Amino acid sequence: MKPLFLVLLAGVLCACASGKVAMKATATSEVVIADGMSPIVNNDTVGAHTAAVHDALKNALGLVIGVYVSQEALVSKAMLIEDNITSQTEGYVERYDIVKQWREGDFSRVTIKALVRKEDLAKKIQALDLEPKKLGNPIVTIVVDETVDGLPSSAHYTADVLKKGFMDEGFVVADSTPSDIQVTGRAESSFNTDQGLGGLISYRANITLSARMAESQDVITTVQETVGGVDANRPAAAKAAIVTAAQKTGRTLPKTVITFLRERSTVRLSIDKVTSINTLNDMNRSIRALIEVRDCRVRSYENGRAIVDVAMKKGSAVDLAKRIEKLTSFKLIIDKTAAYSVDAQLVP
Predict the structure, then answer these.
(1) Consecutive 10-residue runs of the chain (348 residues): their mean pLDDT?
(2) CATH number for the domain running over 139-263
(3) Which residues make beta-bridge pairs with 184?
(4) Which of 197, 240, 261, 312 has the lowest CB atom count within 10 Å?
(5) Fold match, 4-128 / 139-263
(6) What pLDDT is recorded for position 126?
(7) Number of Cβ within a 10 Å radius of residue 85
(8) Where are the domains positioned within the chain?
């Protein structure tokens, strides 16, 4: 006797699959084609068919998720995605039709057409914070000359604080080259006063830093901070001032670098005349396979127009345009290329 929940589930699935009303994508939903399969155990073809449909529904969600989330996030967050999204197909699939069903050896297989609520999925993806904080895991080296009252300091308070700030943002920090980003500068802590402080001593620290791309030496940003520090003796006051200044710098500098990397190493690829999200998913795979590309993810897809953020390992928007024009799996015509953007259209 089949478990009651399987019988009930089969009834629900059959009900969902009935009624061949035309299925059309909308501004908040997308139509996708997906396959599913399940082994036939103890000749239970009904149960296997039900499981195959459920597998196809999960795969339909996976197709939509795959274009809105980078490959890195798909791999590293696979369990989180499974637990929070693909295991809850009923929350995101508005309706579906069974296009084809058949038996293949000891497996039941189906192909479905599903209407997926992409707006709901996008909100869930954003809430789960699946994307890494930055692109590419660049390696950072930090070298800061530190002095106290004009003399070289034996400590490295500024560099240590900055290292923690960059690591908290997900960067890899190394003590030696080669690196992708170099942070260099000076940190000076000098005696200020010991008058009117009730026996305490005041020091003032000044930090000047520059962050550059290691290979090109392009300046990412420069920063300067001046902060005071007070303590019971000179060494402690000098440290208090310089650590406070470094902490203030460390809260903003890594985020500025991240913003620079996103703007400079990411090309916005706009593609018109994209007929379906299945097609878009296949194009994503082809673009990710290009040697110049680190990863790509869809920012938006509506009315046949897809906006794709392409993270480049090397090269420029012009290089990307030349490469995608040579793709054999799809025919893309380039309409316009700018410093950090490419406009193209898909040829049917």
Answers:
(1) 43 47 80 94 93 93 83 76 83 92 94 91 76 60 95 92 88 81 95 93 96 83 94 94 94 87 79 93 92 86 91 82 90 86 91
(2) 3.40.50.10610
(3) 143, 210
(4) 197
(5) no
(6) 75
(7) 23
(8) 4-128, 139-263, 273-347
Alpha-carbon distance 302 to 324, whole Å? 21
In this structure, which amino acid lies at residue 240?
A
Residue ranges in the chain assigned as alpha helix (H): 4-17, 45-68, 71-76, 78-81, 118-128, 157-168, 234-265, 277-288, 317-325
Locus of tokens 């459920």:
54
- CATH superfamily for domain 4-128: FlgT, N-terminal domain (3.30.1660.40)
Structure tokens at 31: 């139509």
CA distances from 159 to 146, 185, 243, 331 (A): 9, 10, 10, 50
> Helix, strand, or coil here: 170?
coil
Residues in the chain: 348
Residue in the block written with tokens 């190394």: 174
pLDDT of residue 47: 92
Rounded to an integer, what distance in angstroms lies between the CA atom of residue 136 and that of residue 71? 12
Global pTM reads 0.52
Residue type, 299: R
In this predicted structure, what is the pLDDT of residue 264? 67
Predicted local distance difference test score (pLDDT) of residue 12: 43
Contact 158, 141 (CB under 8 A): no
Exposed e or buried b per residue across 108-141, where buried means at least 16 C-beta atoms within 10 angstroms of its C-beta: bbbbbbbbbbbeebbebbeebebbeebbbebbbb
